[in-house]
Amino acid sequence: MYRFIIFLVLISYIKLHSQGSNTCIGAQGNQITLPFFTNNQSTCGDINDYNGTNPCQTTTNGNYFGGQDWLYSFTPAQDGYINIVINDIISSGFAYPTVTLLSACPGTSNSCIGFVLSDPINGGGFLVREVQGGQTYWILIDGYTWSNYFTNCFQFDLSVSLIPIITQPSCNNVNFNSGTLSGWQGTTGRSVQSPAGSTTPNYNSTAYGLVVGRHTIMNGGTDPCGGFSRVAPLGNPFSVRLGNNDVNAEAEQLIQRFLVTSSNSSFTYRYAVVFEDPNHLTTEQPFFKAIVKDQNGVTIQCSEFIVSAGGTLPGFFNSTTCSGVVYKPWSTVNVDLGNYIGQVVTAEFTTGDCSQGAHYGYAYIDASCSPSLLEALDDTICLGESVTLSAPPGYQSYTWLPGNQTTPIITVAPAQSTVYQLNLVSQNGCLVTTQFTITVVPLPSPIIIYTD
Questions:
Q1: Does 167-370 match 3-163 at the fold level?
Q2: In 3-state terms, what secondary structure has residue 319?
Q3: For the whole model, what pTM was predicted?
Q4: If you compute the radius of gyration of the chain from its CA atoms, what whole number of angstroms results?
Q5: Three-state secondary structure call for residue 120
Q6: Which of 83, 168, 255, 402 has fewest C-beta within 10 Å?
């Protein structure tokens, strides 16, 4: 609810903060415990400590960090989604609080994790971000200032809670064959323009949970713009559609975190993408991202496919049924996780509309897990025998050395033990190289026994 009261009344209602501080040292020494809720707090009487020092957001029309501010700090006990809500905002005029999540003290470069400009008329501000257990984070409550019509302090309620990320003991329903989204977690939010030079807009997640219509199980049928099957060819009977053909800068994310074992160390995902192409900057276009991350949140080499709508997209076609739409039919990406056995990894898929709000983007996704084919390439044969070598599907090109053969499956019959090299180029142009040995055992010499 948005309420107007006179400034003198607001000042008289100032309540001392029970936790947090106006400094990083003070906030870290007086951390909040999750879940956390505080009401009737106020920035009035605090100092504008962090004006111009926040790395998350800039604007040429006013200052997102020009008001009196307050800082909270927390250290989650486990990995999860942090859910931050600011609402019940009271001020002497129009007040638009800003909420920023940081991995270090405000002013530290590359510390921005998330930012939201709250809208008190429509319920406040909402921010959902992934955080790691044991790491310290800061929440900066500040205010947007533009003219005298905007107040630089306000009263507010704040809640902060942690939703744990569930680690599956193995791949769980990654192919959606249960006909449900069991084993998966998701968020929804908005597509926002990213800094110049970025390949896609940014995803600003504002709500945790799976939403029908935005995380939607598919069971057959044909995409109306691309004309391809909504489930992967020769694959599983189900897929998921992430996003839809609604607009308003909607964006969605779907993740699964699982323990890598020898039985699931080859992760394969399949995707098909449909974009309206408004010919915006790449920082504003509809987009799709697929990434696999290690236990530290670092992207695993060659696992990602990231693309936004544009005029020269490889593998994309112009729709003959939907004006201004481009699409890419089903494609496959394999991620070998043989080096991550015993670790927890996260498969993460994100879609978003154009950040200007008038053009849509969505994707279909399917996945599977299996033992690594690369780990099984070492073999032992007898002299004169041959062996068939199979590389995993989902790469742009294959080169076997020696021999320079370029098919995913080859047959070799070396005359002696040989070290082979397989060069794989992923769909994003990344080179993966692996070496293995085919050991050749000589035939035993015959034993001749002479008898009288």
A1: yes
A2: coil
A3: 0.87
A4: 27
A5: helix
A6: 402
